[in-house]
């Protein structure tokens, strides 16, 4: 459990949930970013109820699912990929696994490059490519993996070092000319690492390197997709990035389980054996996803996420300034993190972050935990939050952090 005393969620509306303890909480974690629109959204509820009224909860892709076809067409249109094909899964982990299967089969190579501090899921292949050491417990892997810099954990955030990062990637690939690299997989903002963005231009530089060497680029947009960073896709912060495969999940279906991959037709159709996902793209989830996508587009939620994220980030920067236990506020849009440290040593400190996490709950605010050392509080509210909720959430988090900072400074 994430808290000392487990918290049950029994109901929700807007950006507020009620716990089994009878208290209301402002939710700045969104079910790990999956409740993109918040709770009890009429348009999504009505779409699900219409599907429920048919009596059909599942058919599988051996039959036509109209909402799945409509959703695939919509995602293909917004993907920015030439001649795109979409494949639906039940989760982000399964979607990453699918992308790795497609890339390695298409390239006839099991060599993959990923980023340090990255997290891509909890399955065999997804864990293998993840650069977060906390998730590499078995030491076993179905792929051969090398890791290159993510950059932002390096002091100045990696800005000004992009050329060096690209050169390191070039050297890694060129050092073994007989080894074909299947793909580079990258998150535009590293979510589990604490909402750490790649340096400006870094993803574009990496994309040029891998494409110049006839390798593939997989963008893991499980947490960054659907507008959360202030752009529809997180990779759009760098111009001219064209993924070969784009992985999505989390908020796409308004909280119902759904993930998938959209990519170039040649890559998506390369498997020599039949492939389906029994529950991937089921009628309930795809009906909810079509309604969610309509909501995002009609209300221009990427723009709203950018505005609210800038306001929230500025309030946190101002309120946390001068605290000895705070390293930095980081992130993009409404994918933010606050990194904490031991006030005495300056080392990343999970104990401080955990204490702030608990104090936020005590004040009626739900946030998450992350960071490569477990030292970050993660902030991922629904994209529909109001200006008043931005101010209230920031004030609650700042108050919690200040209280913990006083305790640590006095000890």
Task: Give an account of the 3D structure.
37% of the residues lie in helices and 18% in strands. The protein has 411 residues and is an alpha/beta fold. It has a seven-stranded mixed sheet, sandwiched between helices. A four-stranded mixed sheet has the order 1-2-3-15. A four-stranded antiparallel sheet has the order 13-14-17-16. A hairpin with a 5-residue loop joins strand 8 (189-190) and strand 9. Helix 6 (162-174) packs parallel to helix 7.
SSE inventory with pairings:
Blueprint: E1 9-13, E2 16-19, E3 24-27, H1 30-33, H2 42-53, H3 66-79, E4 84-89, H4 92-107, E5 111-115, H5 124-129, E6 144-148, H6 162-174, E7 183-186, E8 189-190, E9 196-197, H7 202-212, E10 216-220, E11 245-248, E12 259-264, H8 265-268, H9 283-298, H10 301-320, E13 326-332, E14 335-340, H11 350-362, E15 365-366, E16 368-370, E17 376-379, H12 387-410
Parallel strand pairs: 3-15, 5-6, 5-7, 7-10, 10-11
Antiparallel strand pairs: 1-2, 2-3, 4-12, 8-9, 11-12, 13-14, 14-17, 16-17
Helix pairs in contact: 2-9, 3-9, 6-7, 10-12, 11-12
Cα end-to-end separation? 27 Å
Q: Per DSSP, what share of the residues sits in E-state strands of 2 or more residues?
A: 15-25%
Extended strand count: 17
Radius of gyration from CA coordinates: 21 Å
Fraction of residues in H or I helices: 25-40%
Low-confidence stretches: none
Widest sheet, order of strands: 4-12-11-10-7-5-6
Quaternary form: single chain
Give the mean pLDDT.
94
Pfam family, one: Aminotran_3
Keywords: Aminotransferase, Pyridoxal phosphate, Transferase
InterPro entries: Aminotrans_3, Class-III_PLP-dep_AT, PyrdxlP-dep_Trfase, PyrdxlP-dep_Trfase_major, PyrdxlP-dep_Trfase_small
GO molecular function: transaminase activity
């Amino acid at each position: 459990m994430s808290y000392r005393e487990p918290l049950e969620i029994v109901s929700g509306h807007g950006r507020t949930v009620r716990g089994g303890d009878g208290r209301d909480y402002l939710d700045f974690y969104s079910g790990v970013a999956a409740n993109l629109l918040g709770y009890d959204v009429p348009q999504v509820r009505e779409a699900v109820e219409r599907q429920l009224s048919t009596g059909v909860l599942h058919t599988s892709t051996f039959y036509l699912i109209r909402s799945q076809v409509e959703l695939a067409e919509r995602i293909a249109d917004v993907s920015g990929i030439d001649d795109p094909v979409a494949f639906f899964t039940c989760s982000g982990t399964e979607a990453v696994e699918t992308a790795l299967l497609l890339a390695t089969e298409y390239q006839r190579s099991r060599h993959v490059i990923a980023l340090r501090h990255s997290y891509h899921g909890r399955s065999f292949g997804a864990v293998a490519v993840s650069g977060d050491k906390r998730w590499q417990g078995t030491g076993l892997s179905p792929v051969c993996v090398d890791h290159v810099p993510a950059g932002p954990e390096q002091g100045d955030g990696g800005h000004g070092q992009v050329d060096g990062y690209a050169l390191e990637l070039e050297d890694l690939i060129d050092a073994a000319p007989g080894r074909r690299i299947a793909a580079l997989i990258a998150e535009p903002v590293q979510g589990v690492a604490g909402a750490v963005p790649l340096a400006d231009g870094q993803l574009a530089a990496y994309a040029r390197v891998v494409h110049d060497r006839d390798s593939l680029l997989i963008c893991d947009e499980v947490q960054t997709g659907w507008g959360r960073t202030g752009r529809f896709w997180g990779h759009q912060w760098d111009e001219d990035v064209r993924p070969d495969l784009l992985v999505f999940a989390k908020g796409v279906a308004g909280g119902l389980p759904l993930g998938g991959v959209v990519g170039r037709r040649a890559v998506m159709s390369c498997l020599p054996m039949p492939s389906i996902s029994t529950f991937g793209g089921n009628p309930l989830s795809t009906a909810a996803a079509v309604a969610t996508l309509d909501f995002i587009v009609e209300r221009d939620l990427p723009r709203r996420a950018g505005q609210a994220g800038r306001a929230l980030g500025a309030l946190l920067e101002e309120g946390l300034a001068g605290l000895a236990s705070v390293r930095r506020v980081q992130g993009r849009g409404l994918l933010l993190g606050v990194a904490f440290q031991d006030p005495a040593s300056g080392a990343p400190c999970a104990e401080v972050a955990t204490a702030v996490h608990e104090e936020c709950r005590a004040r009626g605010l739900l946030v998450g935990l992350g960071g490569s050392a477990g030292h970050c509080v993660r902030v991922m509210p629904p994209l529909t939050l109001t200006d008043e909720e931005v101010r209230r959430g920031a004030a609650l988090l700042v108050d919690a952090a200040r209280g913990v900072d006083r305790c640590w400074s006095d000890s």
